[in-house]
């Protein structure tokens, strides 16, 4: 009996992790659609723009200041940041919840981003700080099992 209960719990955890990664693929695809609009404003080169499409790949390094500027621009267009370029928690929750089953992901995502913001809060330049927060979030999202595979994102891109 205990083996069945343990197996049921483990299966539920695997389904939840897979579900949140799939939700993250929708969030990533939708958010990424704003990248071209923010490319010029942020000074993002076409090379970095091309690389950003592979944000979740292991070999993509989140290091370019311009990428932080682009993320800030994209976040502002969706009102996901306050005027001080820090995450607007309620708006981020609402944004993630706007995707199918987003309520499964929103709390974890906001918590991970907030924790990364606290780590890098002493960086005065908004773009530099945001790129550090994004790099931190990528690592923590992978550890938490919510990072999508690139193929998952490509599969939902046409919806946005």
From TrEMBL:
Gene Ontology molecular function, alphabetical: odorant binding
Keyword Signal assigned: yes
Keyword Nucleotidyltransferase: no
Disulphides: 38-73, 69-127, 116-136
Leader sequence residues: 1-19
Keywords from the named record: Disulfide bond, Signal, Transport
Domain of life per record: Eukaryota
InterPro entries referenced in this protein's UniProt entry, alphabetically: Odorant/phero-bd_Lep, PBP/GOBP, PBP_GOBP_sf
UniProt record similarity statement: Belongs to the PBP/GOBP family.
Protein name: General odorant binding protein 2
């Amino acid at each position: 009996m205990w083996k069945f209960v343990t197996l049921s719990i483990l299966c539920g955890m695997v389904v939840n992790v897979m579900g949140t990664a799939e939700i993250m693929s929708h969030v990533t695809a939708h958010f990424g659609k704003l990248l071209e609009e923010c490319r010029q404003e942020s000074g993002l080169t076409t090379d970095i723009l091309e690389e950003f499409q592979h944000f979740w790949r292991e070999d993509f390094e989140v290091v370019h200041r311009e990428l932080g500027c682009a993320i800030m621009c994209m976040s502002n267009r969706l009102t996901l940041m306050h005027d001080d370029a820090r995450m607007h928690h309620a708006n981020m929750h609402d944004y993630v919840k706007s995707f199918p089953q987003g309520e499964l992901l929103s709390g974890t995502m906001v918590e991970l981003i907030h924790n990364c913001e606290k780590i890098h809060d002493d960086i005065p330049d908004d773009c530099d700080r945001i790129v550090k927060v994004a790099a931190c979030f990528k690592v923590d999202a992978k550890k938490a099992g919510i990072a999508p595979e690139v193929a998952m994102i490509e599969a939902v891109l046409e919806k946005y």
